[in-house]
């Protein structure tokens, strides 16, 4: 595993955000070293408790890195991406009379909420 692959793996793990990754990198030096470290070594970093250390040390149980990399290679071509235009749906408005408004009132969107039974 190279540095790029180790970084991808770290970023896919649950409970491991950019701040934790940065702290671990400062302490252990590389993404590969982080994934190879034991739980006791990982918990020496600020913000890494036993649960997070277990997730990192057992990272292969949480993600299938080779499958993720293969999937990324299949979808890597920009020509394979399908762009979809999203058109916002119109919404209803109501006008509330207001004495300071030059148009006679203020228009506000009507927001529907689920009915309660």
Largest sheet: 2 strands, antiparallel
Name the shape in a single word: elongated
Helix content: 40-55%
Termini separation comes to: 55 Å
Question: What is the string of SSEs from the N terminus onward?
Answer: HHHHHHHEE
Which strand order spans the largest sheet, edge to edge or round the barrel?
Answer: 1-2
What is the average per-residue confidence, as pLDDT, rounded to a whole number?
A: 78
Number of beta strands: 2
Characterise the protein shown here.
The chain has about 120 residues and is mainly alpha-helical. It has a domain of about 70 residues: DNA polymerase, domain 1 (Orthogonal Bundle), CATH 1.10.150. Helix content is about 45%, strand content about 10%. It contains seven helices and two strands. The protein has a two-stranded antiparallel sheet. A hairpin with a 7-residue loop joins strand 1 and strand 2.
Features:
about 120 residues; elongated; 2 strands; DNA polymerase, domain 1; single chain
Concise synopsis of the structure shown:
45% of the residues lie in helices and 9% in strands.
Secondary-structure topology with pairs:
Blueprint: H1 3-12, H2 18-28, H3 31-36, H4 39-42, H5 50-57, H6 59-62, H7 65-74, E1 93-97, E2 105-109
Antiparallel strand pairs: 1-2
